[in-house]
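Running co-folding for magnesium ion.
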Amino acid sequence: MTEVTHMNLLQAVNNGLDTAMAADEKVICLGEDIGQFGGVFRATSNLKEKYGHLRCFNTPLTEQGIAGFAIGLAAQGCIAVAEIQFADYIFPAFDQIVNEAAKFRYRSGDEFNCGGLTIRAPYGGGIDGGLYHSQSPEAYFCHTPGLKVVIPSNAYQAKGLLLAAIRDPDPVIFFEPKAIYRASVGEVPNEDYELELGVAEVMQQGSDITLLGWGAQMIQIGKAAKLAAAEGISCEIIDLRTLLPWDRGTVVDSVNKTGRLLISHEAPLTGGFSGEIAATIQEHCFLNLEAPIARVTGLDTPFPLIQEKQYLPDYSKIYEAIKANLAY
Amino acid sequence: MTEVTHMNLLQAVNNGLDTAMAADEKVICLGEDIGQFGGVFRATSNLKEKYGHLRCFNTPLTEQGIAGFAIGLAAQGCIAVAEIQFADYIFPAFDQIVNEAAKFRYRSGDEFNCGGLTIRAPYGGGIDGGLYHSQSPEAYFCHTPGLKVVIPSNAYQAKGLLLAAIRDPDPVIFFEPKAIYRASVGEVPNEDYELELGVAEVMQQGSDITLLGWGAQMIQIGKAAKLAAAEGISCEIIDLRTLLPWDRGTVVDSVNKTGRLLISHEAPLTGGFSGEIAATIQEHCFLNLEAPIARVTGLDTPFPLIQEKQYLPDYSKIYEAIKANLAY
Amino acid sequence: MTVKSSQICAPIFIDGSALKISTLRLLNADGSLVDDLQAPDITEDMAGKIYSDMVYTRILDQRMLRAQRQGRLSFYLTCTGEEASVVGTAAAFSADDMIMGQYREQAALRCRGFTTEQFMHQLLSNASDLGKGRQMPIHYGSRELNFMTISSPLATQIPQAAGYAYGQKLAGNNACTLCYFGDGAASEGDFHAGLNMAAVLKSPVVFVARNNGYAISTPSAEQYAGDGIAPRGIGYGIKTIRVDGNDILAVYAAASEARAIAVKEQCPVLIETMSYRLGAHSTSDDPSGYRSHEEEEEWRQRDPINRMKNWLIKKNWWDESRDEQLQNKFHDEILHELKLAEKCPKPPLADIIDDVYKVPPEHLIEQLKSLQTHVAKYPDNYRTHGDGCQ
Amino acid sequence: MTVKSSQICAPIFIDGSALKISTLRLLNADGSLVDDLQAPDITEDMAGKIYSDMVYTRILDQRMLRAQRQGRLSFYLTCTGEEASVVGTAAAFSADDMIMGQYREQAALRCRGFTTEQFMHQLLSNASDLGKGRQMPIHYGSRELNFMTISSPLATQIPQAAGYAYGQKLAGNNACTLCYFGDGAASEGDFHAGLNMAAVLKSPVVFVARNNGYAISTPSAEQYAGDGIAPRGIGYGIKTIRVDGNDILAVYAAASEARAIAVKEQCPVLIETMSYRLGAHSTSDDPSGYRSHEEEEEWRQRDPINRMKNWLIKKNWWDESRDEQLQNKFHDEILHELKLAEKCPKPPLADIIDDVYKVPPEHLIEQLKSLQTHVAKYPDNYRTHGDGCQ
Ligand SMILES: Cc1ncc(C[n+]2csc(CCOP(=O)(O)OP(=O)(O)O)c2C)c(N)n1
Ligand SMILES: Cc1ncc(C[n+]2csc(CCOP(=O)(O)OP(=O)(O)O)c2C)c(N)n1
Ligand SMILES: [Mg+2]
Ligand SMILES: [Mg+2]
């Protein structure tokens, strides 16, 4: 019998990092304030104490440097786990991630690779953070061949996906839904385990419509599905978990069954990853679709502060969109 | 009668810059090698001579600096036209563009703005450039509310859209299809004129299928449409011209008429802007679509060198996709 | 053939610590002048205004910190300990000069005349906030006062300041830009780009590196291995000075001279102010996890406000009873305005799509309309506190 | 109370040009030693190898430039004028040390043992190119030779080198990293990040700033306003030296010492080599638009290869006839290999999706399949030149 501990998503991240560092001394954690202090969210608590300042350390304040340094570490053979303090601050590292990490193996003909690289960053709204502590930049990275993009939605996933990401032979961007860092609590195995990347999780079976999302949106989707169920609407719920490469097969099968698809994410609508999914699914499920694929997302504005609630795609918006889709 | 000059796309860009600088002394051009040398493609030829080194100058080699400096210039009241030498090198400036320029007016409640900013960059394949002289990064910017994204496909558009972009009150990213810098030749009015941003151009009326694209792809689309016409297929061709905000109305009207849509771009498929367009059109034209929306794009790999031809979405691939779509 | 003086003929490396930069200091802790210097060039009025602005900032910070703990603000961040670095620099500039700050420079805004009411509206994200409630507390901005709206991404303002100042140079009106940043932000690539571009393109900008020893939890020993920020200025060919940031006279003297150089020579200047962040990084932080009380205490002894007060008293420009009066006045005013502001309405929903572009495009108008319909259907889900105010 | 020596009490700014860095030079143009120095610590074998690699690089460059003009290569870029800066540094390092270059360091690759055949396969994007024909000519790389594959985006290798060297430190095998970049690339934010991180985190990396006076058309006067790159090293607290980049003995001496420091003290070192890009930036460039023939001519007089040859001859380690022989040998070998390589096949189509990920995911396999079907249908549209070779 597997021993488990009740913990929240943040603790599961910490536990995943701890597990990875204990299992392999090549695993190195780096980032702003992650040493002594354990990170502004405390995702790296106690790691410096346990594994020493050479394996868990503060960096100077430079995201492009952190990414570049971590790529170099990974190219040398280390397993580099870099933290970007907020996903909003990943953009100074964009060139290193998109032009370098993503293309490292390809451009060298596999002479070199930086597959040992994982970049973690808390992302998303829900903490009164306004423009610069709330963004969901996943779509930018999903348009970048060579990267993998992973987003857990609960504590169990967080540890299992993080361990898989760290050990994956390709560079992985790992976004953590900070809104539910503490709110999402569950049983997490004490042992070392991995959840396969590239595989979506069907959270609930249903027959009338498929609801698809990732990260903190899974909670909103779950609530909306409950409201819908009360009206006799049976929702199938899919947590995508890995956005790049994404599990098309699972989504296609589901939509072929339900005939309807709703996708939800916090990022702005235009250019958000729901567009890619909708475009692919309309192609693969054209004859089975009974209504247009619906997208419930953030507005096409920067992330506001005082109107955060209004901006976010919440359960009531999803619920309304489900009803509209069924009434189509 | 308007006087015109026969010129290529590159000369039209140069002419547009010249026209803007002559008309308004607040217009400043800056970038790597754009002074004395006139830029590596010579888009800024003679501007330093004509307007002096204070208004047209080389910068140190730092794209993040160029973008930041140009944002500051624009905030101060200048009209800043910055060149990024290749679109592949715009990523070090990503934070300044996406976190700063795009959000400048919003975050300040309109106390400040950098609407005077235009960033020009040659983009796309076709010059044996491999990974780092061929990229089409437009989708990254189209997911960024606050920016406008403009791409001309011929000399006439280049001058008119560039002048509109420079004078537009919002920051504009202006990508120039370098593959056809010299190949695309046409009559360009000598006078000062602007083409409205946000408005697509219907290049050819048709009834069987709508073909949508931008930049150098318009040439491939045109060729494919000719081949199709020979088989009795009538293509409507739309050049999107402005990708953000894009002209949904024109596309919806066209697809409602033809019942079919094919979108083509050089950028990789996954997360490319065709996904957004397809997602939107399937929503708005659901009942009129006779086949899935087709996308003919670059592969989901970095841009290769030796297999560039195979990688690019060319006329034959578009032509095959047209036939497959009509046979659906 | 002989070796020219700029040549060496043995591979002797210059040590990383070769360039030690001295610190300008004029004022002792007891308010006496170092080495019995001449009184610096500062009028009683100016000294009074500077002191008053420093005291105001200290009280504003204390009061708002408490308000945040009481749950009345979502977030706050103090300037405590660095008031001299900020007021001493800002006071040396003209109202036409643009200020581009990092976030810990509310003292400069006060110095420009931002009112208590304006502070409160921003902190509470009210409809009257110039920033329309869009950014977190402390992200102030005012076109009227030439104070650029604060942006969270660090160091981005540095190349922007270089560009802004270049525009001022072209405009030819003898204005310049004052740009603040921290010892942490100085590690960002944008710092390098901004200082180098300003030097090469001759932008009249005065950079103030507020070296307060920490970037959140990261001490400067883990931020850089050189002698702080100042030597980098020399590397870029920028005139540079380091000052004791807790010494208001030194800061003001350096800043006055820096502004004069920037405007006269149309070039950048760098000032590094050596000080200490006496409080937590922000209300989200607890410094006890990464530094000692003793260290904090040591710096508390060098409080810049006390030091200036001692000097003012020595000069007979000030006394303790006026000091108490002033503090009480600020205290009452701030509390009063806070209460008023708490009763003010929040920005209207329609604001949410404004200013993304100068004119909202069609798709945003549509998104707003459907949002409004939805909110009207679920009003309880979207209530914002605070309604009705004069 | 007196002022401590590190204090000043008048606002005197340190001038941007305060820190002037001297240049190490050992060898005069005629091959004599500066100031009749002792002979530097270099064996005849090592000197011969260095000289041979410099000459090889010069001839390779001349030959490939011509091949490009003949349309046999799509692009080329020479090291001409900077051979001493590159070979003199690379030769001082061990085969275990990683080299991370910018793109003008083919001489370092030669020094490591890259064969003419390997050069040709990369330049012609052949199936035998270690990089599988994916990058433009001159983007070499070899795991076996510890030479990191070149990447076009400038300066990105600098923080990567800091990280790579940190990994070497942890591995504890006394290897270090040699990282090259140009005077232009040193303006990128990544330069700042990389040098500062290496200094703070104590990475054993030797940075070589190849200051050749230009970044494409931009002269260094428009690149920086300070005294080059070296003073920046001091700003980061990094041991730094500037050398005459056309003086092979100075470069080699500095590099040997730099490597010793980096490995022994486990810290970064910065070398700035002052030289000149004698040719165009690349085959896409024409320098006549931005600099004078006189300037070029002046630098041609300081050719590093000639200077070394004069020294070798003075030492009786070399003579003109051996020189001619060597040149002819290289010339013939290169021409021969070029011809052979021109007959080699290009990489197969299936390669196009390899190495995006370690294992191609399903969507890429699908994309490849449909591409293969399409190409089979339109073979004429997708022919690549070159087929059949042993
Ligand atoms: C680009 C970016 N990265 C990270 C952060 C998160 N962050 C906010 S303040 C801060 C420390 C800044 O330190 P410093 O520049 O020394 O200023 P101080 O707070 O000491 O005044 C950090 C890391 C940010 N705001 N922007
Ligand atoms: C990020 C980036 N920006 C621009 C370019 C285009 N570019 C290629 S080489 C070059 C000049 C580099 O000059 P320098 O670093 O001095 O090296 P040198 O060519 O003189 O050896 C430029 C601007 C690039 N490759 N990468
Ligand atoms: Mg600080
Ligand atoms: Mg150079």
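Result summary
Residues A 32, 61, 63, 85, 89, 92; C 104, 152-154, 182-185, 210, 212, 214-216, 277, 281 surround thiamine diphosphate (ligand 1) (CB under 6 Å).
Chain B touches chain C through 47 residues (CB under 8 Å).
Job closed.
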